[in-house]
UniProtKB/TrEMBL annotation:
<dbReference type="InterPro" id="IPR050984">
    <property type="entry name" value="Gfo/Idh/MocA_domain"/>
</dbReference>
<dbReference type="InterPro" id="IPR055170">
    <property type="entry name" value="GFO_IDH_MocA-like_dom"/>
</dbReference>
<dbReference type="Pfam" id="PF01408">
    <property type="entry name" value="GFO_IDH_MocA"/>
</dbReference>
<keyword id="KW-0560">Oxidoreductase</keyword>
<dbReference type="InterPro" id="IPR036291">
    <property type="entry name" value="NAD(P)-bd_dom_sf"/>
</dbReference>
<dbReference type="Pfam" id="PF22725">
    <property type="entry name" value="GFO_IDH_MocA_C3"/>
</dbReference>
<dbReference type="InterPro" id="IPR000683">
    <property type="entry name" value="Gfo/Idh/MocA-like_OxRdtase_N"/>
</dbReference>
<comment type="similarity">
    <text>Belongs to the Gfo/Idh/MocA family.</text>
</comment>
<protein>
    <submittedName>
        <fullName>Oxidoreductase</fullName>
    </submittedName>
</protein>
<feature type="domain" description="GFO/IDH/MocA-like oxidoreductase">
    <location>
        <begin position="152"/>
        <end position="268"/>
    </location>
</feature>
<keyword id="KW-0520">NAD</keyword>
<feature type="domain" description="Gfo/Idh/MocA-like oxidoreductase N-terminal">
    <location>
        <begin position="19"/>
        <end position="141"/>
    </location>
</feature>
<dbReference type="GO" id="GO:0000166">
    <property type="term" value="F:nucleotide binding"/>
</dbReference>
<dbReference type="GO" id="GO:0016491">
    <property type="term" value="F:oxidoreductase activity"/>
</dbReference>
């Protein structure tokens, strides 16, 4: 994983021609991301789609979109949005289980795509999207916003500088107690619920950034009566003997921090690890220090700037969040699911897995 470059220029500052955005879905994550999208000087909020006319119109009015689409006359709202020639790039904020179908339709329609995490439900689907984007010369990126935050970029810079020596161990947790609600997507197998697909991408992002791809994955988890995972623990092992221990849960509270331990010191994030405002660094032969970071907007603006920059430069993927990395992350999650017995109605055959 390459760390995104550090810039002294505000991420809202235009980097080229205006980019016209279409947004699929009007839920809470879409609203949070679009709030930051509106901060970009070269972003045009062109179109939004929803299943319902009321939601589409309300969202468009709230954020100032030019037009809105909804399910009508046998056509899905997103199909109507994808047929709009004015849309340059589509941001997909649907539930997990819809990511693959909507992204596939967008790429077939000739649209560039930014898709919420996890990019798909499994690695096979992710590979299909990556191959199609490559064949059609279109941009595709998974919306792992943490990768582009100043604090995460700085953490990788410290790791790569050698200040804390060779990384031998990493621990990361992301846990919270979610009210049990069978109607909520977190508890619904049909919506890809559970802790793993919703939360594990963040601890994994830190592990892959600091240590790279693991040689093996071992996973344990607890399933709910509804059939989703309440919590899970992943151990990643590396050929050089390094380890990463990652825990996610929707049934318990935790500090939600990451600790990176090296032969010459350690680094720890503040909470939450997906958007830390501080890093504590303790070199073995130095003084403990705290580095603090100001975040522009809510923090999504950094990944949105990267998408915009790539489109303006004619790139089909970000060098700092490649489709190959998204596929590999899904392979790790597939293997974890196989080991803990977590299956969804939408699953293809996960029996083969990857070496454990």
């Amino acid at each position: 994983m390459l760390p995104a470059p550090v810039s002294t220029i505000a991420p809202s500052t235009a980097t080229g021609r205006p980019i016209r955005w279409g947004v699929v879905a009007t839920g809470s994550i879409a609203a949070r991301v679009v709030q930051d999208l509106a901060l970009l000087d070269d972003a045009v909020l062109h179109a939004v789609s929803s299943r319902s006319e009321a939601s589409a119109r309300a969202f468009a009015l709230r954020f100032g979109f030019t037009t809105s689409y909804w399910d009508a006359a046998g056509a899905a709202g997103y199909d109507r949005l994808l047929a709009d020639p004015a849309v340059d790039v589509v941001y997909i904020a649907t539930p997990h289980t819809q990511h693959h179908a909507v992204a596939l339709a967008a790429l077939h329609a000739g649209k560039n795509v930014l898709c919420e995490k996890p990019i798909t439900m499994d690695a096979e689907q992710a590979s299909e999207l990556a191959d199609l984007a490559r064949e059609r010369g279109l941009f595709l990126m998974e919306a792992v916003w943490t990768r582009f935050l100043p604090s995460f970029r700085r953490a990788l810079q410290i790791v790569r500088s050698g200040e804390i020596g060779t990384v031998r161990w990493l621990q990361a947790d992301l846990c919270f107690t979610a009210p049990v609600d069978p109607a909520s997507r977190l508890w619904d197998p049909a919506a890809g619920g559970g802790a793993l697909l919703d939360l594990a991408v963040y601890p994994l992002t830190w592990a892959l950034g600091a240590l790279g791809e693991p040689g093996a994955v071992a996973a344990r988890g607890t399933l709910t009566p509804e059939g989703v995972d309440l919590q899970n623990a992943l151990t990643l092992t590396y050929d050089d003997g390094a380890h990463a221990q990652l825990t996610t849960s929707i049934g318990a509270e935790s500090p939600s921090v990451v600790t990176i331990s090296g032969t010459e010191g350690w680094l720890r994030s503040s909470t939450p690890l997906f958007n830390p405002g501080e890093l504590v660094v303790q070199p073995r032969r130095g003084t403990l220090r705290t580095e603090r970071f100001e975040v522009f907007g809510s923090g999504f603006v950094y990944e949105l700037r990267e998408v915009t920059r790539c489109l303006q430069a004619g790139l089909t993927e970000s060098p700092f969040m490649t489709t190959a990395e998204s596929v590999r992350m899904m392979e790790v999650l597939d293997e974890a699911r196989r080991q803990i017995g977590l299956r969804y109605p939408s699953d293809a055959d996960l029996a083969a897995g990857v070496p454990a």
